[in-house]
């Protein structure tokens, strides 16, 4: 892997609306390309909009997970994360140019998707388009018509438009004949309030809409970079102007400390890898003890993971949540039975089927409600309730296992689980915490490649506003992805800010080291 440093060149800082943009730097002999990033502070208006948007997105989550998206995206198992992404939380953006001469756009460099899209001058009926830069094909001498329709489904609606072909300038490199989407429809609050114009996906071609070749793939094919590697350094120091840097073609040794821990990509599409257990305050949760999957996603600010674990984190950090009546019903009616079965060393995966809340297919519990969902409205309602009861039971089993491992008394275990029912992650996507309590919160750790990666509370708590008006929110949000894709963690900017991240396409691996 190339760790040689590029020849130093002068950086031109530009301060605009509290956003910092640094010019890109490239050394031709090294073919190491640096893209400066803008860093945006969390905005209260965006925060409110994100909550509204997330609420609508989660209502349609089951449909989004199973939708084929018109066949454009292939197997829905490879598209669910894109469908649920909410970019209003994102903080880091950079600038690219499309066309000749280059038309400038601010984009999210997103490792969790694979297409490049920008607003089109032919976008007439979406208010969002009037608030952002728009691509004008008539003003580019290198434009080529394609015209094939395209749609990217998100939880709150679809970005729709058509494909075109043109040169794309990334830093001082020019990627020729790049397929991209001219967006003619941008629904929802997200794109109306967003500070970015479009998205440049850095995921694999396997999840690319229309099987379009991603920008990153063309960089490699056209010989524009030294090595098939790119890396992210995100500056988490709020008082510093520099937002961070993406390096295409290698890594900058000044961006990290020590050595990277590498793990292989387990499924092309996203930058997905295997992850071990999550540890709260030095104590294993046990949920991922036998393994979970994770995705390194630069297009997501927060850390998203299974409700079961996020609820445990919420309680440990004193985060506000919502009361789950189904959870409390399971604990009051079946809690002692579940505990007795655990103490009798019954198979944890079978317990919820043994007490009649789930069925067991031989490998995992399956909600009994799934079979009962038919066209009748009342039976749909019944199926939804059964789903919730089954899920609540499965969570209670994990929580009790965790406490049994810590040799807690039966009374304390039942009390702990009941308290967790009061700390369920907010379905609107965020949980508040007391700003004055941050210093006393526990470290939350992730096990990757046999190494434990710690996050201190000041790193996973996000602060909105200043002084007496300041509010603090947890950097953890719940997202339940069913097998075979899940259970899954999405490690966004909160994690990538603490740990310099290398995306090594040549060796199909992802690496993490402490950021400098």
From TrEMBL:
Ranges in coiled-coil conformation: none
InterPro entries linked: Aspartic_peptidase_A1 (IPR001461), Aspartic_peptidase_AS (IPR001969), PEPTIDASE_A1 (IPR033121), Peptidase_aspartic_dom_sf (IPR021109), Phytepsin (IPR033869), SapB_1 (IPR007856), SapB_2 (IPR008138), Saposin-like (IPR011001)
Subcellular location: Vacuole
Keywords: Aspartyl protease, Disulfide bond, Glycoprotein, Hydrolase, Protease, Signal, Vacuole, Zymogen
Location of the active site: 110, 297
GO MF annotations, alphabetized: aspartic-type endopeptidase activity
All copies of domain Saposin B-type, residue ranges: 322-362, 386-427
Gene3D superfamilies hit by this protein: Acid Proteases (2.40.70.10), Saposin-like (1.10.225.10)
PROSITE patterns referenced in this protein's UniProt entry, alphabetically: ASP_PROTEASE, PEPTIDASE_A1, PROKAR_LIPOPROTEIN, SAP_B
Residue intervals passing through the bilayer: none
Annotated family: Belongs to the peptidase A1 family.
Protein name: Uncharacterized protein
């Amino acid at each position: 892997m190339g760790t040689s440093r590029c020849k130093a060149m002068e950086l031109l800082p530009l301060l605009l609306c509290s956003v910092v943009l640094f010019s890109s730097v490239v050394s031709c002999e090294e073919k190491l390309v640096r893209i400066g990033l803008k860093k945006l502070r969390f905005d209260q208006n965006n925060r409110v909009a994100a909550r509204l948007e997330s609420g609508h997105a989660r209502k349609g989550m089951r449909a989004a997970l199973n939708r084929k998206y018109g066949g454009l995206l292939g197997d829905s198992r490879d598209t669910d994360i894109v469908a649920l992404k909410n970019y209003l939380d994102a903080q880091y953006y950079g600038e690219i140019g499309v066309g000749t001469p280059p038309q400038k756009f601010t984009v999210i460099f997103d490792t969790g998707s694979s297409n490049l899209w920008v607003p089109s001058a032919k976008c007439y009926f979406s208010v969002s388009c009037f608030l952002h830069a728009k691509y004008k094909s008539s003003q580019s001498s290198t434009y080529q018509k394609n015209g094939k329709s395209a749609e990217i489904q998100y939880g709150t609606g679809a970005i729709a438009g058509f494909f075109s072909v043109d040169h794309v300038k990334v830093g001082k490199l020019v990627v020729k004949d790049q397929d991209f989407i001219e967006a003619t429809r941008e629904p929802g609050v997200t794109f109306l309030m967003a500070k970015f114009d479009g998205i440049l996906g850095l995921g694999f071609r396997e999840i690319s809409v229309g099987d379009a070749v991603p920008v990153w793939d063309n960089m490699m094919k056209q010989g524009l970079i030294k090595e098939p590697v790119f890396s992210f350094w995100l500056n988490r120091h709020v008082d510093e102007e520099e937002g961070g840097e993406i390096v295409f073609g290698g890594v900058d040794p000044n961006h990290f400390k020590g050595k990277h821990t590498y793990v292989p990509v387990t499924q092309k599409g996203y930058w997905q890898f295997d992850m071990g257990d999550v540890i709260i305050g030095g104590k294993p949760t046990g949920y991922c003890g036998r393994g979970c999957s994770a995705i390194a996603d630069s297009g997501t600010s927060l850390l998203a993971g299974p409700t079961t674990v996020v609820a445990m984190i919420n309680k440990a950090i004193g985060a506000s949540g919502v009361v789950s009546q189904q959870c409390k019903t399971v604990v009051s009616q079946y809690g002692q039975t579940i505990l007795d079965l655990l103490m009798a060393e019954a198979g944890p995966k079978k317990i919820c089927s043994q007490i009649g809340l789930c069925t067991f297919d031989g490998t995992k519990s399956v909600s009994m409600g799934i079979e009962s969902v038919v066209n009748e409205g009342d039976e749909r309602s019944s199926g939804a309730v059964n789903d919730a009861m089954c899920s609540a039971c499965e969570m209670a089993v994990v929580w009790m296992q965790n406490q049994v491992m810590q040799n807690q008394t039966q009374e304390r275990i039942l009390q702990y689980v009941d308290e967790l029912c009061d700390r369920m992650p907010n379905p609107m996507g965020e949980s508040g915490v007391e700003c004055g309590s941050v210093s006393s919160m526990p470290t939350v750790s992730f096990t990757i490649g046999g190494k434990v990666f710690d996050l201190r509370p000041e790193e996973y708590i996000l602060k909105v506003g200043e002084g007496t008006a300041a509010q603090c929110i947890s950097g953890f949000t719940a997202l339940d992805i069913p097998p075979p894709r899940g259970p899954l963690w999405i490690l966004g900017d909160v994690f990538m800010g603490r740990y310099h991240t290398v995306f090594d396409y040549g060796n199909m691996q992802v690496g993490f080291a402490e950021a400098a």
